[in-house]
Amino acid sequence: MGGGDATDDFPHSSFLAEIIGEYRSGKYADHAIDLVFNGDTFDFLKLPVDGKYPFHIDSKTALAKLAIVAAAHGAFFAAIRDFLLGGKGPRRVHFVVGNHDAELLFTGVKKELGRLCGADDHIHFPGDQLRIGPVHIEHGHQFDPLFYMDPQRPFISADPEPLLNLSWAAIGLLQVVIPMHPQLAFYERLLPKDELMRLIPELTELFNAVAWRYWTREFWRAYLIQKDPVLDFSWGILKEVVRRFLFTNSEVEIDKLRLSNTVTNGSAQLFVTGHLHQIAHHWIGEKRIIQNGAMRDEYRILSGGASFTPILKTWIEIQLDQDERIVEVTTRERRGPARPAEEIPDTIFDLAPRVRKMLAGLGDRAEDQAAQKAQERQESDK
User: Fold this and answer.
1) How far is residue 52's CA from residue 180's CA, in Å, rounded to a whole number?
2) Model confidence pLDDT, tens digit, residues 206-252
3) What's the structural domain count of the chain?
4) What is the extent of the structural domain holding 60?
């Protein structure tokens, strides 16, 4: 959930409220229920504050972002309040940290969320992972090298206030990609990304050009002159961030070997992860991994870009018995509400002229392209 406008990837809090409301009565009424939001519940990462996309995130900035979301998604918070009051069984709500809502680590944000949800003692913030009986739940960005955040050092000491110790990818996206999001928001929701880049090749050229100009100008001024404590990555890392954004289905990846080792060495029987925006499951011995998909608005490209179709919203139900044994796992999928017609182009090619105009505004790039190749050769030789 973002700011409720055309850049919000999930402006459907009333739809989500209806789903949450289903767990208040009927067959769920007498059950103890844990409602888990498994990371990226709030799209703080892409929310502007005073028209800018800051990568110095202190408590004040984080609370400003939460206020924007709260103003746009009142139905969601009302649904949480009603959920906690409904049914005979106990109710708990958990907000797991994802790579888009690391601001949940701030104490002030936790307190404000508790107030918005109307019941502080039933709202829980387990950090980047949660264990309920035999089930381990986490968003999954901690298995992604570019989005990994040091759990022992979530903040950077700075004057006057601590700042979020953001991942390389978060900083790269905030500095290069996200400022273009208002103009290209619909493109960012199209899958598969590799087909999109093949059909609109100017997108690759645009993002690479903007990334290089940032790297050779703003980055070094902040890093060397201002000695910014948040910045610490190479051109190769920045280029990988942009590559991921352009060519993977959700700008993210997971280190499968590390995930497999974690599951194998852990005691949980079921490991639930997100991050990849896809439903999937597989077994490692007697243990199972489930990817819980996503609820954001995404569309699958059809007919060579001539049309596209909405991807269903997904979530998972896990039922435990009184002995905390898993007795049922259900993946649920539902078509979400349509976005306003004016936000939906007829084909993916309708937005191509906007991309070309943005690219033309960068001027001649021959010198930049030559310098970029030289930098890549230099880094590959190290």
Assistant:
1) 11
2) 988 888 888 777 776 666 656 777 777 677 788 888 877 776 666 67
3) 1
4) 13-380
